[in-house]
Amino acid sequence: MTTKISVVICTRDRADLIGQAVESVAACDYPEFDLHVMDQSTDDATRTIVLALSAKHADRCPIHYHHLAQAGLSRAYNAGFRVSDGPVIACTDDDVIVPADWLAKIAHAFATDPELGLLYGQVLVADSLASVDPGTIVPSLVWSQRERLHESDRNFKVWGMGANMAVRRSAMTVIGGFDEMMGGGAPLRSSQDFDFALRTYRAGFSVLLDPEVKVDHYGARTADQWPGTLAAYGVGDGAFLGKHVRCRDPFALWLLTKKMTRMVAKVGVDSVRARRPIGPGAYNRNLFTGLKQGARYDVDRTTRLYRENDRARGGVTEANAVTSGNRPG
């Protein structure tokens, strides 16, 4: 029996990229899937493109367009899970192209591991970007060894990118979704994927790092943009680790201590080499910022989710509202 897979792509103001991402998913050779585009754009360009592709591929796979009122990657993920119905939800980004066998390989992994809650695959640099300006950076995640992480083996590792992940719906229900205070467009800026992976692991599900599941990434960052990306990573990692330390997670405490020790050592070595004081880089500076900002929120220790309070808000509540349908509203 074939398991239906619902694909979720979250996007915001990237009409120049969304078309190729949707086309690649529509070309997958898996027999039963649909696609949900969760759009947070400030204009109608993405809507126009997705609706045209929905009509073009109507006989191949259902393509659904949804508009969200407020930016926030974790909000978009959670909304995508709510409006879809596949027992497995596969997620990729608007600057990614997936191969034809992407969904078939995801389905095989879930079919052969009943405990599997979350899968991460490789995110490769697209061949066309291999010779770009040396100062240009394309975030990627490359490895060769298949790893199954499970609490019974006490082998968790921080790994994975949301550009290539899949979740079992029944696990998602238990875990409680992505933390909407974290991720792009949210106050705590990133690391929603690391946070979700650790919560999946602590809930008793396996997390599979499968190098056979591959996508090509086209999301290049210029040298001027990269420090901002590192700053966001730092804020998110600080908020991620700080939250789980507050939940009395020994792994989070160990990892945070390890990061801080390495940071102090590196600053010391760099200062000696330069014969002058040198402060921490963008990532490390913002690791402390993330710890501080995350500490302003309450934490539900049962779900391990940040909660708003009078000191810290997560944005307009209408951000969770989804307008769906394949017709302009």
What keywords describe this structure?
329 residues, alpha/beta, Spore Coat Polysaccharide Biosynthesis Protein SpsA, Chain A, 12 strands, disordered C terminus
Q: Summarize this, please?
A:
With 329 residues, the chain is an alpha/beta fold. It has nine helices and twelve strands.
Describe the structure.
The protein has 329 residues and is an alpha/beta fold. The protein folds into two domains: 5-221, Spore Coat Polysaccharide Biosynthesis Protein SpsA, Chain A (Alpha-Beta Complex), CATH 3.90.550; 230-307, no CATH class. 37% of the residues lie in helices and 20% in strands. The protein is built from nine helices and twelve strands. Strands 1, 2, 3, 4, 5, 6, 7, 8, 9 and 12 form a ten-stranded mixed beta sheet that branches. Strands 10-11 form a two-stranded antiparallel ribbon. Helix 1 (15-26) packs parallel to helix 2 (45-56), helix 7 (226-246) crosses helix 8 (250-274) and helix 7 (226-246) crosses helix 9.
Let me know the average pLDDT: 91
Low-pLDDT segments: 316-329
Secondary-structure-based class equals alpha/beta
Using the CA coordinates, give the radius of gyration: 20 Å
CATH topology of the largest domain: Spore Coat Polysaccharide Biosynthesis Protein SpsA, Chain A
Order of helices and strands: EHEHEHEEHEEEHHEHHHEEE
Bin the strand percentage: 15-25%
The CATH architecture classification of the largest domain is: Alpha-Beta Complex
Count of spatially separate domains: 2
Shape: globular
Q: Would you count the extended β strands for me?
A: 12
Report on the biggest sheet.
10 strands, mixed
Number of helices: 9
